[in-house]
Design a protein that fits this description.
260 residues, alpha/beta, UDP-N-acetylmuramoyl-L-alanine:D-glutamate ligase, six-stranded mixed beta sheet, three-stranded antiparallel beta sheet, globular, binds pyridoxal-5'-phosphate, hydroxymethylpyrimidine kinase, nucleotide-binding, hydroxymethylpyrimidine kinase activity, ATP binding
Length: 260
């Protein structure tokens, strides 16, 4: 049987991040992808020109249409934009959930443009972190969620992971892609302890869609029945290859996408 994953996220008209990156990742990893779109961005590799929010009722309508028909094996959640959409997604998970949920707490695009209104951080903490099997913040997002300065050591990354676990997530993967280290080292924290996943850092400007790609790749592994550690290992390997291949793409004049 074909494994099915659903992405609940924003559309990137430039094709590099968001729903478009998620569906490319699902496809590349042999998983059937469906989508619930939370916002439309008018965007290219240079930046986000405009955002058009999808009404919460229509987010609900998409969730109900997809989950009432497709046997969903895993969910990835990305850009949500604002609190009313977050609450609609949380209610949808309560109606249809039970499968693994990977929550990428997207706040800012690679171009620096905001993708979440600041007050909605509290809604993510209240409504979605407790419903998530895995939360995948980068260093900036982990700092915002925990209300502490950006981690400057591995011990601080682990401490922030534990703080987010305390908010009700079952596991947290803090991504060290923006860190001080020569390797890109991510730490997975759950009740069993902590495990590090490292890859050599690859110097490139073309990192648009990296967060989306990793969370979707992990959701793909979970949809196929891998355990969490295996899904993170396979997902990280997929992202590392996607970053290494990015410079050969030559898409746009700004931060180009990773390759699928
Ligand atoms: N979702 C949407 C719709 C976006 O446009 C972006 C970035 O531009 C993201 C998510 C997050 O992107 P990344 O995967 O680079 O963190």
């Amino acid at each position: 049987m074909t494994a099915i994953a659903v992405t609940i996220a924003g559309s990137d008209s430039g094709g590099g991040a968001g729903i478009q990156a998620d569906l490319k990742t699902f496809s590349a990893l042999g998983v059937y992808g469906a989508s619930v779109i939370t916002a439309l961005t008018a965007q290219n590799t240079l930046g986000v020109n405009a955002i058009h929010d999808v009404p919460p009722d229509f987010v609900t309508a998409q969730i109900d249409a997809v989950f009432s028909d497709l046997k969903v094996d895993a969910v990835k959640i990305g850009m949500l934009g604002r609190s009313a959409v977050i609450e609609a997604v949380a209610a949808g998970l309560d109606r249809w959930g039970g499968m693994p949920v990977v929550l990428d707490p997207v706040m800012v695009a690679a171009s620096g443009d905001p993708l979440l209104v600041p007050e909605a951080v509290e809604s993510i903490i209240a409504h979605l972190i407790p419903r998530a099997g895995l939360v995948t913040p980068n260093l900036h997002e982990a700092a915002r969620l925990t209300g502490t300065p950006m981690a400057a050591s591995r011990a601080e990354m682990v401490a922030q992971g534990r703080a987010i676990l305390g908010m009700g997530a079952r596991a947290v993967l803090i991504k060290g892609g923006h860190s001080w280290e020569t390797e890109a080292a991510d730490v997975l924290v759950d009740a069993a302890g902590e495990r590090w996943f490292s890859a050599p850092r690859h110097p490139t400007e073309n990192t648009h869609g990296t967060g989306c790609t990793l969370s979707s790749a992990i959701a793909s592994g979970l949809a196929k029945g891998l355990d969490l550690d295996a899904a993170v290992r396979v997902g990280k390997a997929y992202l590392t290859a996607a970053i290494r291949a990015a410079d050969a793409l030559h898409i746009g004049a700004g931060h180009g996408p990773v390759d699928h």
